[in-house]
Amino acid sequence: MGGPYGDSHDRLHRVIELDRELDRIKDIDLLLERFLLLARREANADAGTVYIREGNKLAFKHTQNDTFQAKLKPDEKLVYSYFSIPINNKSISGFVGKNEVYLNIPDMYAIDKNAPYSFDPSFDERTGYKTISTLTLPLISSDGELQGVLQLINARNEKDRFIPFKAEDVPFFEIFTLFASKAIQRAQMTRNLLITISSFACLRDPGETGSHVNRVASFAVEIYEKWANAQGVDIEERDKNKDVLRMAAMLHDVGKVGISDIILKKAGRFDDEEYRIMQSHTWVGARQFLDKSDLHMIAKEVALSHHENWDGSGYPGKIGDLFEADQYIKDVKVRPPGLKGEEIPLFARIVALADVYDALNSKRVYKETWKEKKVLKTIRGLSGKKFDPELVDIFFSILPTLRNIQEKYPDFNDED
Prior knowledge:
By secondary structure, the chain is α+β, with helices and mostly antiparallel strands. Helices cover about 50% and strands about 10% of the residues. The chain folds into two domains: about 5-185, Beta-Lactamase; about 205-410, Hypothetical protein af1432 (Orthogonal Bundle), CATH 1.10.3210. The protein has helices spanning about 5-25, 30-45, 65-70, 90-100, 120-125, 170-205, 210-230, 235-250, 260-265, 270-280, 280-285, 295-305, 325-330, 345-360, 370-380, 390-395, 400-410; strands at about 45-55, 55-65, 85, 105, 135-140, 145-155, 160-165. α7 (about 210-230) packs across α14 (about 345-360). About 40% of the residues are buried.
């Protein structure tokens, strides 16, 4: 578009496109990852971090760094530690969050000594990275509350040299973060709703904690992404499936709300009748997803089939009509044949592996936490029996990422 207003109109059109792209993503983790990537692309920034407000602190949620990523193998992801910082004037992100203003710092090593905030160079010293410039902006919700902080690091010129961020780009990012905050607020509401729904199962089953369902869902997304990349799945389809799978996996055991506490909290082995009752949580859960939307269809598959085994020995098997399946509990002679191999839906096979991995790593009423060596040996031993061998291979190829997820979602004594 020509004329004196051409560039501003183009940028406005661009930010509307970005808003539409973010609006398509429902899961908060995937949204933050995409938001950071899009923001970095617009600024041609080498790195960046997103913090989300939790009480009076900013919790580190996601980071990207092209310099470090280039040193990894294809499909390998950065592993990082999770931490939080106070919302106060001492740090740059804390200052931006507290005062709800942006900071465009051209040289992090030349910050005015009279400034209330300062730069901590320990990360640079530890890793050899050189932080030159930052653009840090607050994320403000539609009702005026601080949601978090976006920090972009090291703008690059056409020769990939680190340079200051352009002052004329700030208005664009102020609008973009305003739009992104709306998407973040919506995604947080969706996550909170899913946690609330799954918490009903958590109240019944001491093994079903909020951290557990978050870990299982995150594991599942990583396994699927690696599988999809290997299969050459279209990026748009892959990203849509990741978004839906993340939510569906959080609801995999929602059917446990229909199981007696006597059974769910039993420390010993089930007898035959108790075991059949326990199996009913699969179809009770699947009955909750009767809509034709992508989420309901995948959630139904996952809830129904995440206890099927690759060798056909799992449950509930080929039970027919979901609303007639309760007959199986009443008739001990009936045992539907289990689904086998690729008869089991892909997403159910993925969640099965993610669920067992987390269960073995966690304390339950019937077991203590296992050592990782024993967990991994068990997973490997169940390849081709309980689990899809291809998915087991993928699982082991992304172990550092899965361990990082465990750090992101610790248990925190959910039962207290």
